[in-house]
Fold this sequence. Notes:
single chain, alpha/beta, Gyrase A, domain 2, 2 domains, five-stranded mixed sheet, two-stranded parallel sheet, 9 helices, 7 strands, 36% helix, globular, binds iron/sulfur cluster
Amino acid sequence: MSAIANPALKVFVAQIGDELLLAQVLIRRAGATFELRHVADRDRASEELRELKVADLRGLAQFTASGAFRPLKSEPNLQNGWRSTAGGEAELESALNRLYPGAIADWFAAQSPEPPATNYREFTNRQTGMYRITTMLSDAETAQVTRACCHKNFCLKRRLWTVNGLASDAAEEKSLIPCLEPCALLLELARKAMRIEQEEKMELELSPGETATLMAALQIALAQPASIAREADVDQPANPRRLQLLLEKLAALPIRLTVRTEE
Ligand code: SF4
């Protein structure tokens, strides 16, 4: 364990008080040690929970309870039913880095009056190769992609980066963990969204009632994430973020009514 003072860790630990919630992990101070458990297990007796070593937490964070890989560690699907004890501040840092990589450093950076966020345009202007087309999305399209990808059902990081016309996330909606720049999943969805925009369009007329049914069907599919496509595979039409993106687009459609009258 490193004995080098880590200012970010010091300031973070000072925030903990008796307990602190970091995304889905509840940190409780117990003298010089810290107990970590899933917030869903807040009121469960310790004996009911599986005891994990700090070293086991990386493995825990890799998969959901049903065994699906978690490409984004900030997704709100961390397994519950466990507890782990960190023997001191340095071990707490190791534990949190296994559950939420980089969270303490990013949290500390975000305490500055001007957090070092990299906005969408600045980030995508640096992209080359297959991701270069992400610069072609309009601000409104980028906002839809961002709302879909960073929705609180998919990611608990509080997005501080923005694009014109889109506000950053409020901490209360998400968690203390900031997001300082678009992640790989966001970039993949933006690339796919631009490819979809470039496809030849077909005319499809829907009544408000049919649109409502389509939106309800999307919401039903989104409520059962385990039964639909893999999180990171945006090439699959049933990818949850693509379903959310279509919902965003349908909700934003201007309604142009044409009424069929009786002869
Ligand atoms: S870009 Fe969005 S989905 Fe990716 S980590 Fe940041 S907030 Fe989460």
